[in-house]
Amino acid sequence: MELLDKLNWRYAAKAMNAEKVAEEKIERILEAARLAPTSSGLQPFEIFVIKNQELKEKIRPVAWNQSVITDCSHLLVFAAWDTYTVDRINYMFDLTNEIRGFKNEGWEKYRQMLLNSYPQKDAEENFNHAAKQAYIALGTAMVGAAYEKVDCTPIEGFSVDKVDEILGLREKGLRSTVLLPIGYRKEDNDWLVNLTKVRKPMHHLVTVMA
Ligand SMILES: Cc1cc2nc3c(=O)[nH]c(=O)nc-3n(C[C@H](O)[C@H](O)[C@H](O)COP(=O)(O)O)c2cc1C
């Protein structure tokens, strides 16, 4: 199947059948998310993979009681940094130097520029910026899932405060941003599965300026 066929096949599943997804597939979907580009390469988020059924049962009522939360195989929680700190910025720059095996003057100047701006900014503004980066990883993970012929449902319909509390995210300097149950569609119980995909026409989306 070509990529576009797979993207047409994917949809936001409304019902899943509780079948387990092979760990190798989950690993490749997570690797796709890890490879997502982020602003300055900071990757300002973490992903929690919930396999534990009791935890899923706790989250479902605070996520509009959506059945895919409990009937999925793995529930991914994308949690963005609550702010940018000196330590968080230095970690990624040090990691880059370590992996590439050299220090670069331009890169170090760029580090200083970020250190002199992000940590001084309002935490809410920083969180919003970090959350945008988490969404890029969400999109990449969803494409990865479609590639693996695995279903998923992006979910914003949940109480951020309650999910943060259940998973103890605030203590870790994180805030839940978006959920992604991963599993297999339950075709006989899903009102959406056979409906035609609706997207606005290309000319309403794209303006070419030649
Ligand atoms: C950020 C985001 C949040 C969403 N939240 C929910 C949700 O809480 N519950 C749900 O059933 N669908 C949710 N959706 C699914 C969208 O409604 C769906 O992707 C859209 O209608 C397009 O349909 P398709 O994905 O089936 O092609 C969300 C999608 C995105 C991208």
Q: Biggest sheet, strands in spatial order?
A: 1-2-4-3
Write the CATH homologous superfamily: NADH Oxidase
Which secondary-structure class do the elements indicate? Answer: alpha+beta
Number of helices: 9
Task: Give the SSE string.
Answer: HHEHHEHHHEHEH
What is the architecture at the second tier of CATH? 3-Layer(aba) Sandwich
Rounded average pLDDT? 97
Radius of gyration, CA atoms, in whole angstroms: 19 Å
Beta-strand percentage? 5-15%
The number of E-state strands comes to: 4
CATH topology: NADH Oxidase
Q: How many structural domains does the protein architecture include?
A: 1
Sum up the overall morphology in one term.
Answer: globular
Give unreliable regions as ranges: none
User: What's the N-to-C terminus distance?
Assistant: 33 Å
Structure description:
The protein has helices spanning 3-9, 23-34, 53-59, 68-71, 86-100, 105-115, 123-147, 160-167, 202-205; strands spanning 45-50, 74-81, 151-152, 174-183. With 210 residues, it is of the alpha+beta class. It has one domain (2-84, 121-205): NADH Oxidase, CATH 3.40.109.10. The longest helix is centred in the middle third of the chain and has 25 residues, at 123-147. Flavin mononucleotide binds at residues 11-12, 14, 66, 153-157, 178, 197.
List the helices and strands and how they pair.
Layout: H1 3-9, H2 23-34, E1 45-50, H3 53-59, H4 68-71, E2 74-81, H5 86-100, H6 105-115, H7 123-147, E3 151-152, H8 160-167, E4 174-183, H9 202-205
Antiparallel strand pairs: 1-2, 2-4, 3-4
Bound molecules: flavin mononucleotide (FMN).
Residues 11-12, 14, 66, 153-157, 178, 197 line the site of flavin mononucleotide.
